[in-house]
Amino acid sequence: YCALNKFDKAEDLYQVSWRIKEKTSGRNSKDYSKTLYNLAKYYDALGKYNLALATIDSATLAYHNAEDLDLLKILDLKSIIYIHHEKYEDAEKLILDLLAKRKSAQQEHSSEYALSLMNIGFLYIEMKRGNEAIQQLESALEKCKQIYGLNHPYTASAFTSLADANTLIKNYSKANDIYDQASKILLKYYGKDHFEYFINQFHYANLLRLTGKSEEAKKIFVSIDEIPKNYINKLSKYLSERELENLIKIFKEYNQE
Length: 257
Fold this sequence. Notes:
The chain has helices at residues 7-24, 30-45, 49-59, 69-84, 88-104, 111-126, 130-148, 153-168, 172-190, 195-210, 214-225, 229-236, 241-256.
């Protein structure tokens, strides 16, 4: 139902699911917690951040060990909701705590640790702290290379975020090279009609605008404008409302130019 944008029906089913699990497993069960986790992701995607935070807090009640790795996964989502809700100080404090706990649990070479580095890098981009973002994202990129290899979409995502951070500090030449590396990986792995490649090219086109290469940017934006509407609908299910609004804002600025 979420994939079909039938969100009212999806919410009804989530509510039924967690009520059944509340009765069968109890509020303090991990099964109940898992449903609340999915419901919190749903609320986050709709931009209902206060509701998402309240739901994710309820999902943590099943865990009594602060070092439980499943609990840390739940808190990963909470940190992302904080970022989307622009509660940046809360997000930073939580992500730094997650990194410390994963380091203590000897998870420094895990995908979860790399994800936390990606999250704090994204946070610092949102906070306009470009140099700190680059430091964290360079570490995340190295972790992704070690875990997934160079030619993997997660590694490409780390490249794209690192390029975004370099764009932020106006290191445009380096950003251009990094976007190029990411796009080659994504094109080879997914092809040109995939969400991740779409996002990479959108960000790259914005860099071209900033550096005065409007004709090159135009070619990319025009290709985006020509994407069939059913494909855009397919893409939109991967984006939160706020992320989608940001992309629309950039596109509108391009049209005004």
